[in-house]
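haha ok so turns out i had the wrong file open the whole time. this is the CORRECT one, sorry everyone. sequence first:
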Amino acid sequence: MIIAVSSEGKDLDSNVDPRFGRAKNFIIYDTVTNNFDVIDNIQNLQAAQGAGIQAAQNVAEQNAELVISGNLGPKAFTTLQAAGIKVALWSKGTIKEAIELAIGGKLEYSRSANVEGHWT
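then structure:
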């Protein structure tokens, strides 16, 4: 499975970024190979609008099957849903912890956005 996690840093010991659209980075983790890539999200950090949609499209281009982030707005959530990507809302620790929870089946998938649009 390919897991995309919003990240405050560039390694597995970084904290999960509670923001999705304006996260600093995304860690794209492959559970088959146990390898990861870092995708920076700098183009969306100061976007006036559309950051969530653009971030969701970027994650979809990485073939993510699951997104883990603290908060997602309605447009980002809808974009991920349309791409067939599951969402788990969690940001209480590190990327490594989030991935371990996902692999262990201990994250609950969200059925809707949990914040209004333009949450920063």
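The two ends are 29 Å apart (CA to CA).
again sry for the mixup
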